[in-house]
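Provenance and format

Records in this collection were gathered into a single text stream. Each protein contributes a sequence line and a token line. The two records reproduced below are adjacent in the stream.
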Amino acid sequence: MKSMSSQIERRFEISSSIVGIIDGSFEIGNLMVMVLVSYLGPRVHRPKVIAVGCLIMSLGAFLSVMPQFLMGRYNYERITVTVDNISTSVSACSPAASEAHPFTDATETPRAMKTLGCEKTTNSYLWLFVLMGNLLRGIGEAPVMPLGVSYIDDFSKEENSAFYIGLVRSSGMFGPTLGFLLGSFCASVWVDIGLVDIDAISINPKDTRWVGAWWLGLLICGAVNFIASLPFWFLPYSLPKEGENENLKISHLPVQDDCKVDPPAQPQLMFSEAVKDFFPALKKLFGNPVFLVYIFLTILQYNSLVGLITYETKFMEQQFNVSVARAIFLIGVILLPITILGMFLGGFLIKKFKLHITEMTKFACITFIVAYFLNLLYFTCSCEVLQVAGLTAPYSGLKHLSKNSFMASCNADCSCKLDQWDPVCGDNGITYMTACFAGCKSSTGTGKNMVFRNCSCVEGQGHGLGNSSAVLGQCQRESCTKAFPYFLALQTTCAFILALGGTPTYMIMFRSVSPDLKSFAVGIETLGGRVLGGLPAPIYFGALIDETCLKWGTKNCGGSGSCRVYDTKAFRNVYLGLIAGLRAGCCLLYIVLSVLIMKRFKPDGKEMTDIQNTKRSAIKELATANKNEILPGARTSEESEETCM
């Protein structure tokens, strides 16, 4: 979904803020069930609840792709050209162009445009299917992490728990990796694959009007979600505590053959009791200052991470002149595997050196602060704004660009339409909104290979008549492309360092709350992060990015569509500035968290001694309970003989 956000924006002709609302609907779905699921987690059959969640995610994915089969073919903006009856030459600069309707797709006729263009106004709202599908996916995803992580932590040794959870979280990153790779492939394939002649399409994947097969990846993921639900139906309600298997085998030896050993009974869920204990449990969690600071830290981290990922492909496309498909591919091949490695290594270091909670906090704090200062170097990866005549660059003879100076003397007699966007690149390195604005009066070639000639606006900028040509597409910014590898290397380094401290940070929550509240704490952490971070971040990031747009597309029936050209400098300052500001707050909270934990869990302190004594007592009580209550087969030989008699 993250990799397809640009494709969805262009297909439905919506703004970045609307895309942010669609993206945030996933978090709304989480909000609806997350607290209930995480609180009731220890009282229900967790694997089966996860299985139901997978089925709901599958249904949501299938619902999201429905608009593709309800809408007609995608029609991209394209200007009308006048065909010379004597030759195959066409003219973009013609008074007749103002009277004609835009010819939007090589696969459709103007008559079809008139018939389909404004009658199917309901197509403008079909993005609601995507929103509702994403909402269902959020509902289905809610039980996976809170119940899955607590399921693992309950039945693993304390020294192995961090390693297992780090392993699960890092292996879970293979999903996004495959998702980004699949998204890269889908973004490079035309949206109406199999229905149109690809050779007749005059734009390429680098064009801001290009729409890839956004629906194909969701269709595949829906099927995979369904298959993923199947194994969970066969997992048991609970697992034996790690390391107790040998004790259980020994304790079973004295039991006579005629003694029937019953399996552990599943506790009955009393809903009234669960509800009655809800608010005291909530009060206990938020009365813990370490957990409270951790929640605020999580919220800020979610804001920066979700905003970063949601618009990263758009940023790469606009800033460094790379196609969306290539940007998605690089994220999937380079950034995510490095993140996986960092998360796995972080969990491994905790297990290897048996880090205490104070040491984990220091490690997480140092790695985040180092990554933050490296993050500030992003601002050095600058790139010039795309030179578009009338938008960011003046026409010939004008020293300064005046606002909305789309027309000039060189194209005044061409009757160009101001709401069209079919860019051409002149020999002078300047992009024109259409060949009409370049004043082109003839052309050679067809389709993607069409070259416009005799362009009066290009001639006026120091080019002779024989050299005044323009080709389809925006002009390439070579300096931006050269700066991209440095940006990618810097981002890879930051991602690895952040991921390295990710697992230690996550384990702080488990070590700072009581064992009976672990599942509830994970749910509150996920809920707070997603509702106050994942939900608003795409919306306000998108709204601020929209403010940097210089040229909006136009829908068939009027009204603005998706953005065609951004002010890349303003885009960079908004995007990177928001991320840097949010992470500055994270640095401050990491320091506060470190101070609180060092005071509470100081090795020489009284509280730490009390905690260790309590922990030892709890372990002894748990061992006794395991022998006398939980497993009937784990009794002493004397008790077994008495029972049999």
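Adjacent record:
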Amino acid sequence: MNKFLFFTQIFSACVEAAGGMEDFRRSYLRLCKEGGVDTQESVLAQLHDTRTVTGSSRLDLRGQSITVDTCSVLARVLQNDTVFTEIILSDCMLSEEGVKMLLNGLCSNTTVKVLDLKGNNMRGTGAEALGQLLVRNKVLRRLVLEWNALGMWEEGFAVFCEGLASSTSLTQLDLRNNQINHQGAAELCVALKRNSNLQELDLRWNNMGLLGGRSLLEAMQQNRTLTKLELAGNNIPSDTLRAIEQSMNHNVDRQSTLQESKSRTQVLSKEIQLLKDEKSRQYLSLMETIDRQKGEMGRSSRNSSIRLGQLQEALNEQKSSVNSLTAKLQMTEAALALSEQKNHDLADLLTRVKMEKNELRERQSREIKKEHEENAVREAKHLKEVNSLSEKNLQLRSKLEETERRCKTQQDQIFELKQELTNTTAELKLRLAQTEERLEMEKRRAKQALEDMDGLRQKEVDHLTRHQEDSERALQERILKLEGQRIQLEEELSRVKASLVTERAQAEEELGKVRSQVRLEEQQHLTSLEEKLRAVRQSRDESQNHCTQQKQTIAELHAKVSQQSIETDSLRRRIDELQQDLAGKEQEKVSEVTRVRVELQEQIGHLQAERTAQGGLKEKIAALEREIKALSVAHREALLDKESEMSSLLERLRIREGEIQRIREDEAQRASFLQNAILTYVQGSPLAHFSPKK
């Protein structure tokens, strides 16, 4: 039956898709007639082919030469289309106007998730239209733009990058062979810094070079979602490619850790919900048992009151019979003289009956003492169980204190890491100050050398001053670059600090949540245990009251039996009837005692069930402690990752210091070469005879 329903659902979906395809074809023909546009047979044939394929949601027009008019009609049809989820327009020789119309029509579409525009030679206007599409469309997931020329026009590519930065749905982007240079790579990197959804990016066979690779590396240090980046054929050095690959590996690790944390939080929420359900069920079961016990106690009290009324009626009947017997005794006093011998025999029988009654009383007293001892033993067992439960609660509190101590130690470690970060930043600032001082000293020396050389002839120095101005400009550009690198390093340090602060806040929030959950569970467990103890104490008090009532009834019965024995000294038959009544009452007492025993056994079973529930709670608490340990291990691993990142930053600083030293050595060599050239030129010139000798 389930298979039949499944196939019927598939068949209905296919029928709906075929109907939607027919509507698309009709709307295309209608709009062509309204606009006076000639329909392209290739497009109609492709729509017919897609209609024959049941259940297809792809519009494949690859290799078809589509005109501007058909592009405008398709754009109007695709605005409100709900059939196609994938549109392929690769190698269609689309013009700039046609691309713009199609993309404007797709801006309001809500079903297309894949768009392929490969090999259409799109440039400035196409890039701008793509940027508007990425801003307005919230459904597109994959965009293929291979073999186009988006990077040739900087303004259009900048608009496309702005749209990519504001996109919230795109996850895959293919930009192979788009003539993107280092400037376009910089614009793309700015977009990647702002984007938080793109996961795969293909930039193979462009012309980014070293500067583009550095800008991509800088963007990857801020982007946290990009996990796949293809950069073959871009003339990027291997060290930058390795650094980019390391950053991508970090992003993959972050995504995996985020998924694991999400799954763990879901599992924890499910377990907490199960615990809450179990506790609510236990509470409901306890309330039901308490209601049952109350009903049984009310029934027992009603039965005892009914039995007391019946006994009182029997006693009244016995009193009336005794009065009648006393009247008969007065009538038979004359006959007593003749029956003295019979009286002696009756007296012997009465003594025997008294002995039997005494024995019965002793037996009853022994049974009552045994019941009291059993009740005392049961109370002692209950008290022992209560003490064990209180000890377990103390152990749980001690575990909570240990977890709080661990949290404090982790906070101390985080504070130490902060101190290390401050020390490293201070060292970096000192090094930067030293480099700035050295650069100023070199500038002063260069200026002094220029002033000394100005004493020579002006005609010969003009050429040299031009060269020196060029060298100064190059030095200033390098200094600006070094200052930009210093600013970038400071920004990276600030970002690392911010990430550490956010991670610490998240860890503290998670620890606070776990503590509050454990405390709430302990409070609920303690309240349930206190309620159970109260119920046990109430049941014990009720059983004691019932025992006292039974003792009172037994004492009253004994008094009544003694009165009847005194009154019926001469009536053996009546004594036998009273003995039978006593036997019936003893049976009722035995039945009541057995009932009380059954109730106590049921209470013992409930307590055992509570013990098992407490064992389950202990196991769950142990599981929560394990999860807390796992979270602490993950936090330590994150701290180790941050330390590795700090070490990599320090290595970069060392490398850049080495580059600065090389630049200084090159500049010193150039200055020495210039001085030697000037001296040789002055010595070789005919005016050297008029120059002053040093």
